[in-house]
Design a protein that fits this description.
By secondary structure, this protein is of the alpha+beta class. The protein has a single domain (2-265), classed as Endonuclease/exonuclease/phosphatase (Deoxyribonuclease I, Chain A), CATH 3.60.10. Helix content is 22%, strand content 22%. The chain has 5 helices and 12 strands. It has helices at residues 11-24, 44-49, 125-147, 183-194, 234-239; strands at residues 2-7, 29-33, 53-57, 65-69, 74-78, 101-106, 109-115, 153-158, 198-199, 228-232, 240-245, 261-265. Strands 3-4-2-1-12-11 form a 6-stranded mixed beta sheet. β1, α1 and β2 (29-33) form a beta-alpha-beta unit. α3 (125-147) runs parallel beside α4 (183-194). It starts with a strand and ends in a 15-residue tail after the last strand.
Length: 280
Amino acid sequence: MRLATWNVNSIRARVGRIVDFAVRESVDVLAMQEIKCKAEQFPYAEFEDAGYHVAAHGFSQWNGVAIASREPIADVEHGFPGMPGFEKGHNGPDAPLEARAIGGTVAGVRVWSLYVPNGRALNDPHYFYKLDWLGALADYTRETLTADPDRALALVGDYNIAPTAADNGDPAVVEGFATHVSGPEREAFAALEASGLQDVVRPLVPAGFTYWDYKQLRFPRNQGMRIDFILGSHALADATRGARIHRDERKGESPSDHVPVVVDLDLTGPDADDRPMIFG
């Protein structure tokens, strides 16, 4: 299985480019974030014409997540158990849930497409919502893998966190003093990994960014951030055979500010074939 994640920054604005990439790169499962449309507005026909099933979750022109798969998508969930909500000025546990998580099972792999809250500023209520959201995700992951330690679980998407200084190449994002690079966010990311997940891309692609701001020539200067991840359970990590960050997708006409991150999975076992560890 070839699994990819991509913050597409508006699916309707870039559907042709996204479908072309999925077909050209033989992507079996594509998790998308920031689709920026209601579920009924998603351009299903273009994906279906290319041979994909789609599950989408969105409420408005903000946020939104989706999964496209060559195989049927089973057991679709909107929001993971325990996921908190958010509304500006709202206090309490019953804030409305945003369209930030969609899960589905494909060929035995439980895939979650996740768009982690941005945080906005270190003193903003959205920042504390982000930390709560990540904590709830870690709780869900721990409970899931405690119940089924050998489950192939993939939590993929835009995490809006650069976990280490090496993941931040944007001079405007000051280490420790801005969202995405603050201590509590990095601790929350580490806690999520400690719940039973591994970054399955980093061992194979140790360098490279996944996001470049549109402003100040950030992309040609390569002043980006690595904030898009494929985190997997040990079963998924053991099945990973290759990984790639598709930097060139930031080029060309009307690109997203993020690029796809892709892994190859061998779900038949470690001795099934002799594919190289990194594909190109």
